[in-house]
């Protein structure tokens, strides 16, 4: 049962994980891609759509919440097969040796993916390198071993669940059945827990994790129920009172960078225009309702953003139709996520704004004052804050 639960759950984790990777638009430009040597592993990449606007929020919320909820199932599954680690003789045939090798990658891969995922959600960046790179390559190793394991075991798992473990034992004992000892002990000790008790214990553990986790993906007041979500950064209340990823101070954005000397430079081809804050704020504004949805699983309900459409900014430098991609740069010096390339379909979506206000108030410094990007269905990491330069058509 644990195996079948993981079969379904891990499949969803894999698909939502690949979607999240596609949402970064890694094929678009080098600054979006932290795994430039991915080769064929990026075979499936596609242009990330801008609709539905809540798509990334849902998919990444499912990815992170489900990953956390599956932890008790994973641990119980590993616990239930511990005796098999010591099976004797350790290797009976070439096929058996290969299967055991795949188990090393399977158990190691599962541990690695769950551990790096949880650490990232908890904002513990203790990795030797980028989380994005580690979690992406780790996923492929894990899923390779996972597929091998499922091919070897699916039939037995189904028989064990449908007909009971004894039937599975007998089935396996038939001469041509897949070789290898099962999980039923030859001389069992008195059980300390019933099968039902074990399943209930794991189910209760998963349910408890669900209750104290999902609030961070729903956001708003539900965030208060997210007892396991990282705390310590209080966004306060009011129009700007929603979750903050990195504060201005934490990425070295100084008040003078976003003070009166701040400028917005817009470029396309040979043309260029430079706007002061007042000039930008005087341009016609649109209002859109969009969430912030971070790769780390937290998201906010829709916020009401006011700002200038990216297509209107492109028009300022002569791009009046078929707007191309845009390189967005912030005042942030160094560090990750200070700049991004947005795809043409994102620029052309009239809900994509350079926002200057949220929920009727000016952006707070921590939410990207004087101007930040909002794009429907894009991951939070593409919602660049403290924007100072937009270059349409770059980098080609
Ligand atoms: N310049 C800059 N913009 C940035 C970031 C950053 O580190 N630097 N973090 C991004 C990430 S990862 C997220 S999830 C969103 C969060 O936006 P918020 O802090 O306003 O909620 O901002 C994005 N914009
Ligand atoms: Mo993020």
From TrEMBL:
<keyword id="KW-1133">Transmembrane helix</keyword>
<feature type="transmembrane region" description="Helical">
    <location>
        <begin position="131"/>
        <end position="152"/>
    </location>
</feature>
<dbReference type="Pfam" id="PF00174">
    <property type="entry name" value="Oxidored_molyb"/>
</dbReference>
<dbReference type="InterPro" id="IPR008335">
    <property type="entry name" value="Mopterin_OxRdtase_euk"/>
</dbReference>
<keyword id="KW-0812">Transmembrane</keyword>
<protein>
    <submittedName>
        <fullName>Membrane protein</fullName>
    </submittedName>
</protein>
<dbReference type="InterPro" id="IPR000572">
    <property type="entry name" value="OxRdtase_Mopterin-bd_dom"/>
</dbReference>
<feature type="transmembrane region" description="Helical">
    <location>
        <begin position="197"/>
        <end position="222"/>
    </location>
</feature>
<feature type="domain" description="Oxidoreductase molybdopterin-binding">
    <location>
        <begin position="260"/>
        <end position="392"/>
    </location>
</feature>
<dbReference type="InterPro" id="IPR036374">
    <property type="entry name" value="OxRdtase_Mopterin-bd_sf"/>
</dbReference>
<keyword id="KW-0472">Membrane</keyword>
<feature type="transmembrane region" description="Helical">
    <location>
        <begin position="61"/>
        <end position="82"/>
    </location>
</feature>
<feature type="transmembrane region" description="Helical">
    <location>
        <begin position="103"/>
        <end position="125"/>
    </location>
</feature>
